[in-house]
Structure formats: C-alpha cells, structure tokens
Amino acid sequence: SRDRAIQYFGSFPGSDIPTAVDEQLINEARTRLLGDLVILNTCILLAAGVAGYFLAGRTLTPIKKMVEDQSRFFGDASHELKTPITSLKSEIEIYFRQRKKTIKDADSVIKSNLEEVNRMQNLINNLLTLATLEKVGEKLEFERLELTDILKDAAKSVQSLAKKKKTRIVIRDVKHAQLNGNYNSLVQLFTILFENAIKYSKDNSSVTTSAKMGNFLTVKVEDKGVGIPEEEIEYIFDRFYRVDKSRTSGETGGFGLGLSIAKEIVTLHGGEISVKSSDKGSTFIIDLPVF
Ligand code: ADP
C-alpha cells in the first residue's frame, strides 16, 4: 500500500524512514491489540459463562420447585385413589370367596362399596376443581356481587351437614357488602370454610360469619371447634395436608384439598386468606379487593 501511495502521490522528502518505523510500530501495535483482544474476549466469555450459570440456576429454581410440587401432587393423588380402590377390591373378593352368600352379606358389601365410591367421587371432583381453577384462572369471569347472596347459597349447600351436627350458621353485618368476583367460585370458597367449621366442631355448635367494608372487603368465618395447633397453621393450605392424618374415613375424612382450593379461589380474586386459632376455635379471615 505504501508503494501504491508513492505511485499516486509521488515520493516526498524524508518519507522513507518514518514509514518504515510506522510499519514496525503498526505491526507491534497490531500484535499487542490482537493479544489484548484475545484476553478481553476470553474474560468476557468466562464472565458471561459464570453469570449465565448463576442466572440459569436462579431462573430454574422456581421451575424445579414447580416440577417437584407437580410430581408430589401426582404421587399423593394416586395414593389417595389407590386406598379406596384396594378396599373396594378386597371386599368384593372376600365376598366371592364365601361359600354361603346371603342377600344381607351382599347388601353390606354394596353399602360399604358405595361409601368408597362416594369418597373417590369426592376426590376426583376436588382434583377437577383444582385443575379447572388453574386452567381458567386468569379468565375467570367477574361481575358485581352481593356478599349476602354468596353466603346464603354457601350456607344452603352445607345445610344437611349442619342439620346432622345440629350446628347453626349465623350471617351477620353483611348487608351492603359488595365486591367484584366470580359467583360460583366464591360460593365454593365459603362452602369449604363452612363445611370445615362444622366438621371440626362438636355437635350443637355455631358458626358465625361477618363482614366489614374498607379498602378491602374483610369476611370472617368463626367457629368454636377443635382449633388448629400453631405449628400446623403454615401447612393447612397445602395440597393433601391434614392435621390429623388418621382421619381417613367417616365424616371428617377429607383429603386435605379443601383449603388449597379455597386459597386458589382467594388468590384468583386478588385477595388473601389467613387464620387465627386457639383451642377455643378458629377464625378464617378473607380480604378481598372491592374495586
Ligand atoms: P380436609 O379435607 O382434611 O378438611 P382441608 O384442606 O379443608 O382438608 O383442611 C386441612 C386441614 O386443616 C384439616 O385436615 C383440618 O385438620 C384443618 N382445619 C381446616 N379447617 C379447620 C377448622 N375450621 N377447625 C379446625 N381445623 C381445621
């Protein structure tokens, strides 16, 4: 390029020496620059690699937790379904092994089988509810609602259990309480809370629900039941969590899904659910936005 420059512009005095020095300098600078660039790029690559590793770990942690939760959920659900199926099967097998079969025996097997089938139906309904809430969650249709209507409907759906346990449901101070929400899921929320309040109380008890309007609509469901031990409170909203694990049959034999459904519904409404409890009873407090 130097020769070409001379061709174009002709030689000029003293141009030879500086140009030779320039070329050497340029070569040296080029080599140095190349070396620096290699070091710089290696550093950037290493830094990016290390940062990527940590950031990927951070991003993956919630995903990893979700996968673990899902697999625990499937394990628990399968286990809960296996128990009634095993019991159904063994009762039927024992019946068929009997030499003399009477109608009375058959009746008692069928009656017991029906109980197990009801239990399974209950579990499947709960699982379907959870799946539906997760799926339609974000598109849940909201409308302007009166709290009284929701509470009355929820009380109606636990009527037979309340009657059986001679428990009264008292609805107080809820007039004029309004909110934006999904009617059916809110009825389901209070049905779960009323049902628990009745289930975990002695006979002849009462359940009181009251509301207050402020920045939030605060609804309380208060019972005089067995209460929840302090150390268990943080877990009761988890799926399949039961305080007394031995309660697997009879009227208190739930699956530990009720409160997790309740929490999901409250969360989908942008609210919060909490509980205060002692050995004199429990109060579930629900804060719902009123906008
Ligand atoms: P379950 O089907 O067992 O009732 P939930 O998810 O509705 O499941 O409740 C989880 C656990 O929390 C219950 O097993 C019970 O031990 C406890 N619990 C819920 N509500 C009450 C209540 N009102 N009083 C006392 N304990 C309760």
Brief characterization of the structure:
Helix content is 58%, strand content 15%. The protein is α+β, with helices and mostly antiparallel strands and 291 residues long.
Structure characterization notes:
The chain is of the alpha+beta class and 291 residues long. It is 58% helix and 15% strand. The strands form 2 sheets. It has a 5-stranded mixed beta sheet, with helices on one face. It has a two-stranded antiparallel sheet with strand order 1-3. β6 and β7 form a beta hairpin. α2 runs antiparallel to α3, α4 crosses α6 and α6 packs antiparallel against α7. The radius of gyration is 35 Å and the shape is flat. The termini are far apart. The relative contact order is 0.09. The mean pLDDT is 90. The structure holds adenosine-5'-diphosphate.
Mind sketching the topology for me?
Blueprint: H1 2-9, H2 16-97, H3 103-136, E1 143-146, H4 147-157, H5 159-164, E2 168-172, E3 178-181, H6 183-199, E4 206-213, E5 216-223, H7 258-268, E6 272-278, E7 281-289
Parallel strand pairs: 2-4
Antiparallel strand pairs: 1-3, 4-5, 5-7, 6-7
The site of adenosine-5'-diphosphate has 21 residues, from helix 6 and helix 7.
Strand content: 15-25%
Strand order of the largest sheet: 2-4-5-7-6
Bound compounds, each kind once, are: adenosine-5'-diphosphate
**What integer value in Å does the Rg equal?**
35 Å
Q: Work out the oligomeric state of the chains in this entry.
A: single chain
Instruction: Give the structural class.
Output: alpha+beta
DSSP E strands, number: 7
Number of helices: 7
Mean of all residue-level pLDDT scores: 90
Largest sheet: 5 strands, mixed
The coarse silhouette is: flat
Poorly predicted ranges (pLDDT <50, ≥5 residues)?
Answer: none
Fraction of residues in H or I helices: 55-70%
The run of helices and strands is HHHEHHEEHEEHEE
Report the end-to-end length measured between terminal Cα atoms.
Answer: 76 Å
